[in-house]
Amino acid sequence: MTDASPASRDYRGTVFLPQTSFPMKGDLPKREPGWLERWERIGLWSRLRAQSEGREKFVLHDGPPYANGALHIGHALNKILKDVINRAAQMSGKDADYIPGWDCHGLPIEWKVEEEYRNPKGKYQGGRDKDAVPVLEFRAECRAYAAHWLDVQREEFKRLGVAGDWAGRYATMDFPSEAAIAGEIGKFLLNGSLYRGLRPVMWSPVEKTALAEAEVEYHDHKSAILYTGFPIIAGAPEDLIDAEAVIWTTTPWTIPANRALAYGAEIDYALVVVDGVADGIELVRAGQRFIVAEALIGSFAKEVGLAAFSVKRVFKGAELAGAIAAHPLRSWSGADDGYQFAVPLLEGDFVTTEAGTGLVHMAPAHGEDDFHLTRAHGIAVPECVADDGTYTSQAPGFTGIHVFKAHEPVWAALTETGHLAGKGFITHSYPHSWRSKKPIIFRATPQWFIAMDDGNQIRAKSLQAIAETHFVPDQGRNRIGSMVAARPDWCISRQRAWGVPIAVFVHKETREVLRDEAVLDRVCTAFAAEGADAWYRPGAAARFLGDGRNADDYEQVMDIVDVWFESGSTHAFVLRDRGLPVPADLYLEGSDQHRGWFHSSLLESIGANGHAPFKAILTHGFVLDEGGRKMSKSLGNVTAPQEVTQQYGADILRLWVMNSDVSDDLRIGKNILGQQAELYRRIRNTLRWLLGNLAGFEQGEATARKSDDEPFSGLSAGAYRALPELERWVLHRLSELDARMRKAVADYDWNGVYPELHAFCATDLSAFYFDIRKDSLYCDAADNPRRRAARTVLDVLHRCLTAWLAPVMPFTAEEAWLARFPSEDGSVHLQGFPEIPAEWRDEALAAKWDTIRGIRRAVTGVLEKARASGDIGSSLQAAPVLHLPEELLPLLPPAQWAELCITSDLRLTTTPAPEAAQMAESQPGVAALFAPAAGGKCERCWRVLPEVGSSAAHPGLCLRCEAVVEQAAA
């Protein structure tokens, strides 16, 4: 068999084409579960803990999600962001031990269990009455429900690639947790800040319990309104006697609970006489005299239908001091003389003329201002409304009516007495329970409170702690600060069954709260062994009170503690009891937690320990659909994380999180996920190209590194200085990215970091550096210094990129690492971020190459036009002319310009550019002109050169390629 003729030889086998097992397609939904299994098999988490022993601890304390249903996209956002921060802290040299946890007590789970009781198709077929179920049985069902969803959510979090101590997770319903929560309540009991008091709280009539502010959301609601007059009967100037002090309210149901009126001492009031009423108006009558704020006469007259009126005089509110009015229901026949009490007029600094009449009716049980003003004047607080929202016997004539259905009866009663001046409806923002979605009321009931301003000074200390906390973004400081500054005492009691009881005893005769550390110790010991169920077992009171006290003498409190107190005390049993540092380095949740978990954690820790439980707080926004709308099943715009991982893979979802501005609300949907998949593809192609061009690097060029055992050991100073400028520019860019990464690790501000890393891969590498160095990597000899330098930098790039991408794309980074360094038990996650030598940062070199790249764009612009016109098919068919000012001529020699512009040749000139030349946008005096390359096309490197054809042995090759082929054949 004879050799082929030189002219027809195939040189493809002599080109160093990329070789890698790293596939182009990620196929993440299928591959990611295998990586999870591998990490479990090699014990990655325990190895990280062993590897980190002795390092500085980093603690991101996990705010517990609620164990109630499958994960939604907000959960995914939260846990992915936490995971990225934890992984980055670990790889930056810390010991980032992360304990995930769950909130398991409280009303949402009770509500779900009760729904099962009520459901005709449920397991009880609607045949159970919750109130008839023994409390221990009910609690057991709640515990089982929470345990089920905890396990479901744990697996869903793991599928997202979230690393943590899943085996050692915490839950508020664990026995040791319940004991610790009881112990934290006990601290407030013993230091005197816990007290029982009567005060209005937000109350859900549907759920029959007090609510925390964080459990309330606001929706539009149609409310009844009324204007009613309180006749002045004593203590006022003569001309005001029998005049009616008019109030306006959006809660007509509070009228039976009224006990006073409030006025503003400096407000100008008018004595208005009705001279005529509009047609069809029957409630007001000519001759009636009303007292209203002068500024509100017009709106009042319009609302109640006054056709004509006169103002007898205007006076300051101070004239109303000491005035007594009659209740507008005093003469109602249906009340059986139940409203004969006096209604004093009291000065209130909260009264304004923004709306209404400038006079405010005071129902002490149903408003914060009402309560404080009336109590300050010794007025008793009636309990007119029961826990289910119906009137009690203290609302004569209305007993049994639900307050949300009371407007018609109240209107009718006031019409009978002749004091109803106006009625109607308005739609306004109104508080609702976020669980039942039903409107709530303010209702005064005996509750347990933690004082904000007693000797413990929780408010003052909390505000100081806020000032010392690092907030990301910083506006969170003002948000939580204003909430703490204005909040009332903390109501921590709930009238439910599933939770940790407020394990307190009250002496029945003296009403004194028992503050005995020995009793508390017995409770905590029992809870740790048996759970909080111990409080509900027969004989519990005698058991915990101990010898020397008669259980019959004490009330055993059966309220449970607010779940926000529970989650707010997690630092005590997750961090302190596990030997982790307190305060934690970081708390991270959604921005709504300024009034939720951040808030309760701060108050609880300050009150119990005197310091905040965190050093820094990071908040993220909420997830909306692509159009900026809130997600809802009814709109069909919900993006479920489970569906995203099934279609795209968790790395795509994680990339979406880190490519978003998490400090603001985020958007997600089909198009946005498609964009993220495209960004992922570019990053993956960058990794694949690196791996393909590093084939055999360890064997041929291992001298560029010290050992494979180190994540990255860099270049020696001499080797670095020997690199071409282009390679040193790449290393400079790596030093900039390294600084960006490390600043994000230190500040917890990751906005823009991974978009910048993607831009580096797409623009600096793929579209610039890789494009330029393809020729050398594919066609230079194996030992060519330029090729060796490029591969040395590719090695650095691979190590840096896989490490930097590992926190956000843990599956892909692992695949890219092991494709180069195969190992049975190795992992990129056992590596650290590369230590970048300081000498790689070269601002002068960077400035020079910014200029070079600006000039290059003029050349590539010319080439694009030539390609579009059909003059060339490839830039290697060109040999453009580059016009430069004299001072820029030394930047690069012509051969390097040609290499940089990926042309076969390039001519430099300082002559003025002709009009047809392409001018550089940012470089005055710089222009490029197209010219075709002269010579033949090399069959190996495809450059067009005059020398092609000069070799007898290889007439189809350029001299460079001929030498490489001959060297390889020798």
From TrEMBL:
Subunit structure of this entry? Monomer.
What is the protein's given name?
A: Isoleucine--tRNA ligase
Query: Which domain of life, per UniProt?
Result: Bacteria
Q: Which organism is it from?
A: Teichococcus globiformis
Task: Provide the taxonomic classification.
Answer: Bacteria, Pseudomonadati, Pseudomonadota, Alphaproteobacteria, Acetobacterales
Query: Where would you say this protein principally sits, based on its record?
Result: cytoplasm
Reaction(s) catalysed (UniProt annotation): tRNA(Ile) + L-isoleucine + ATP = L-isoleucyl-tRNA(Ile) + AMP + diphosphate
Any note on cofactor binding? Binds 1 zinc ion per subunit.
Q: Give the residue ranges of motif 'HIGH' region.
A: 65-75
Q: Please give one Pfam family short name.
A: Anticodon_1
What is the residue range of the motif 'KMSKS' region?
A: 630-634
Q: What is its EC number?
A: 6.1.1.5
Q: What is known of its domains?
A: IleRS has two distinct active sites: one for aminoacylation and one for editing. The misactivated valine is translocated from the active site to the editing site, which sterically excludes the correctly activated isoleucine. The single editing site contains two valyl binding pockets, one specific for each substrate (Val-AMP or Val-tRNA(Ile)).
Does the record carry Zinc as a key word? yes
What are the required cofactors?
Zn(2+)
